[in-house]
Amino acid sequence: xxxxxxxxxxxxxxxxxxxxxxxxxxxxxxxxxxxxxxxxxxxxxxxxxxxxxxxxxxxxxxxxxxxxxxxxxxxxxxxxxxxxxxxxxxxxxxxxxxxxxxxxxxxxxxxxxxxxxxxxxxxxxxxxxxxxxxxxxxxxxxxxxxxxxxxxxxxxxxxxxxxxxxxxxxxxxxxxxxxxxxxxxxxxxxxxxxxxxxxxxxxxxxxxxxxxxxxxxxxxxxxxxxxxxxxxxxxxxxxxxxxxxxxxxxxxxxxxxxxxxxxxxxxxxxxxxxxxxxxxxxxxxxxxxxxxxxxxxxxxxxxxxxxxxxxxxxxxxxxxxxxxxxxxxxxxxxxxxxxxxxxxxxx
Length: 347
Hints:
By secondary structure, the chain is mainly α. The protein is about 35% helix and about 0% strand. The chain is globular, with a radius of gyration of 23 Å.
């Protein structure tokens, strides 16, 4: 028994100390982070009890998010196409740019308030936030890598070995822990400090143009861009002319249902003024172009959303003044504190 006790002590010391073959693994308290739940938001859809954000989990997720080694070339990171100051979108790029200059087929979506969403991607291909990151990592025109290869690379990095050991109880560098760490980073991306929010709280007032735009928005846009999240999370065909270059069938790619042809997820409009370009394929560069489209560019099809085909008219009729007022309101949805929050920045 005495010899066995000495062996255990020696083994413990070996695991805790640095040597030529074993990296030092720092053991420290891994505190839970307070989820920044706004009072006027719904409860999160993400199970924060199952995967609670922690200091080390968040740190690991952030490191993974900005690490190009998650791609086959070692260059393209999640943060490459999701830039914080533009609400984690690929600013001015119509579609995502991947390894070796490859172009995707869809615009990189904002990564905000994901804790409140039920499904992810333009077509809802990811039914859970923990599975969302698999899509860009394994898509050939994005990061073009395999999960197995990524894990192999992470296991060769002493810093990652230490972070995984501190972030998760089992300390394993495995698929579940990698994607849970990424989720811990992303669920903390809560954006709820816009002028719009301050007005709702009674701490600010709209200008005349903003107030007029809000009234127009409530009357003509809020059926789809509903509630405090400014999306009803549904999938709709908004009448975009089909781009023959991509011929993206939308939600149908996931469900196989003809009724889902050209339907895409209704995006949140939070930080919309900085998250250009717009639509699933980034075809519009300005908010004015978007409103011009809804006014006079909507095309008919078998799956066009009924809200956009009232009687004999297609789209949403808007005067030039109404467009200006709507844009004035949409600009109140920008959250500068979130866009500049250093906890989410790469450096």
